[in-house]
Amino acid sequence: MPQLTDAEKALEGKRIAEEKARAEAAAKAKAEAQRIAKEKAIAAAKAKAEAEQLAKEKAAAQAKALEAKRIAEEKAKVEAAAEVAAKAKAEAKRIAKEKAVAEAKALEAKRIAEEKAKVEAAAEAKRIEEANRPWYKFW
Known about the structure:
The chain is mostly helical and 139 residues long. Helix content is 91%, strand content 0%.
């Protein structure tokens, strides 16, 4: 190799320093790009995890809402059945009351009929007694 002059040595040193600086800048840029890519990957993973968590929470809320709806429907059915039972009980009570009133009326009618029969029997007995009594008296 031929000997370089001082100016050439200076230019060569400058060129080497520039290449070294470019290599360092490229390495820094590459490291920065890797750091940014890593941060983006972490952010994407966090976003995915949050989305999955939100989906789980939404599914849990929907399941809870469905369960609440099912319970409300069952409660409504039970209340409707209780209302039907209460109406049936009230109807049975009303029928029993009507039956008791009818029986009381029947007993009263029977009592009146028996009294009337007694009065009629007494009147008939008196009529027969008077019919069998002689028209004359021995005293």
